[in-house]
Amino acid sequence: MSDAHAPLETLPRSLKILLGTAFLALAAFPFVGTDYYLQMVTRMMILAIFAMSLDLLQGVTGLVSLGHAAYFGVAGYALAFLTPPGEPVSLWWTLPAAVGASALLALIIGFLVVRTHGIYFIMVTMAFAQMVFYAFFDNKVLGGSDGIYINFKPEAILFDLENKKVFYFFTLALMVLVYAFLRRLLWSPFGRALAGIRVNEHRMRALGYGTFNHKLAAFTLAGALAGLAGFLWGAQSGYVNPELMGFHMSAHVIMMVILGGMGNFAGAIVGAFSFEYLLHVFKDLPQVAGFHLGKHWQLWMGLFIVALVVLAPRGILGLFASLLKDKSEKQGPQT
Amino acid sequence: MDFVNFLIQLLNSVQYGLLLFMLAAGLTLIFGIMGVVNLAHGSFYMLGAYLAWSLAALTQSFTLAIILGTLLSVLFGLLLEWLLFRHFYKRDHLDQVLLTFGLIYVFEEMRSILWGDDVHGVTIPDVLSASIPLTETLSYPVYRLFMSGVCLLLALGLYLLISKTRLGMKIRAGAFNHEMTEALGVNIKLIHALVFAMGVGLATIAGMVAAPVSSVYPNMGSQVLIMCFVVVVIGGIGSVKGALIAALLVGLVDTFGKVLLPQVAGMLVYVLMAIVLLYKPEGLFKN
């Protein structure tokens, strides 16, 4: 049962300072990091946008979607279809088109799924995402199981996205924009209504809120933002395949939100960075006594997830917050 | 489609439906009684198939493999319940989703370490390897009939257990009101452990019985898991009767979809689910 306030809905000053420092570090990173790490951090930021979009549903509204990757993948595919094989395509209309495609899909599926609750919602979002997955997986016209290459990054005229540093800053700017937008939204009347739905939907209905419309709007918005991340992913990697909308991708993004801490968007960013870094560490594990540890990264990830749920269900920022709380309790009785 | 072909497809769809039911029954019971979402349920199906393959190779007998495999899987289920699931009955669904997703990874890699990543075949025992000729060119394998028979027997057994025995009464009481049942002196923890182990057992048996037909391969659990979710959503969570009817319905739609409309066959089952959701958001037979 949810508390009236999500953990860290208001960020303490110490955390704000920490996040600000992290932002400065991110902005400075391209001037010191190598190309390999530059691409890795870009990928982390894209996943951070994806994780924030899910947090709007999972942490704020209390809807656990196990099929969020569908909206992520569809935008990537939209870019792949819109990019001709021989030349780049303009960013300025493909980005809105791809985000629109994701939003439309989320609106249609959302219309069916937001009428369900709890466990049904989890199962149904997962099943519909699988439907989208198989639509792309089974049809050669849509790329089939091999996926599609995107030969050129979108053309922006004002800046050159083929340049890795430029792409990095473009992604960073979008991540900060999405964060600022969602933080504003969290404290807007709409965001308060969504939080109200998480805490007690029946009461919200009794107060006269059309919770169906609110949930559908949140679902569509979350789908659109996931689409933004998917578009960037497709542009960065130059390749889309059905795995982008798969079950594992959906579960990973839930993991990111949990790992960081739900309901405040900052946690989603922290979670996406940590999760992607862990994945990198696990896959890079050495060979020990003829047993390749890195090849079995899923085992370590699986054990890590199990340990996380058992030991720290409130995520990294949650741990951080409880440490802060302990400290302030020691300092004095005032709360 | 002539009559013989129709008959073959009908038998196939019933067999597929019954197999799905074996898996979905466990899933729906575990949710209905303990309130746990178990994403790792498909892994038990995979476990069954690999057990059938390795035990049949070890003992040289398919029957012995099935008996041993069932015992092992029930023990495994009890252990898993005691070690992990027991502590998650009262937790948020989100935590359960995460836990069981982590378990999928763990099981999948354990399988890879223990049994490797190759595809294996399991030979059908001689007694069941015949085919019933239907026309000069078409015939129906006895083994598939045997599969349906096993599933039907187990479904009947499950029905009798739940609705006619004292244990079944306690299970139903526990699902209805957990605290009250406990207050009346029923050891609800034991009931939970038994129901969980039964769910694991059913899924494993389904995997073992299916192994000779589907062959044994990595990740075989995930696709079947999602089909089970669809079955449970259509049937209504917690309802075994709903699971049976929904499983047969899904079997029919999937099998005939593949024959009649191959381009969209993969999506038809989900369309069915969408239609059910529009009219009955809580499934056909809500408990």
Question: Tags for this entry?
Answer:
heterodimer, A: 335 residues, mainly alpha, ABC transporter involved in vitamin B12 uptake, BtuC, two-stranded antiparallel sheet, two-stranded antiparallel ribbon, 13 helices, 2% strand, globular, B: 287 residues, 75% helix
3D architecture notes:
With 335 residues, chain A is mainly α. Chain A has a single domain (13-284, 294-331), classed as ABC transporter involved in vitamin B12 uptake, BtuC (Orthogonal Bundle). Helix content of chain A is 69%, strand content 2%. Chain A has helices spanning 13-28, 35-61, 69-82, 91-113, 118-138, 164-186, 189-199, 201-206, 211-237, 247-260, 266-283, 297-311, 315-331, and strands spanning 148-149, 239-240, 287-288, 291-292. In chain A, strands 1-2 form a two-stranded antiparallel ribbon. In chain A, strands 3-4 form a two-stranded antiparallel ribbon. In chain A, β3 (287-288) and β4 (291-292) form a beta hairpin. Chain A is globular. By secondary structure, chain B is an all-alpha fold. Chain B has a single domain, classed as ABC transporter involved in vitamin B12 uptake, BtuC (Orthogonal Bundle), CATH 1.10.3470. Chain B is 75% helix and 2% strand. Chain B contains 11 helices and 2 strands. Chain B has a two-stranded antiparallel sheet with strand order 1-2. The longest helix of chain B has 32 residues, at 3-34. The termini of chain B are far apart. The mean pLDDT of chain B is 88. The chains are: A mainly alpha (335), B mainly alpha (287). Chains A and B meet through α5, α10 and α12 of A and α4, α9 and α11 of B.
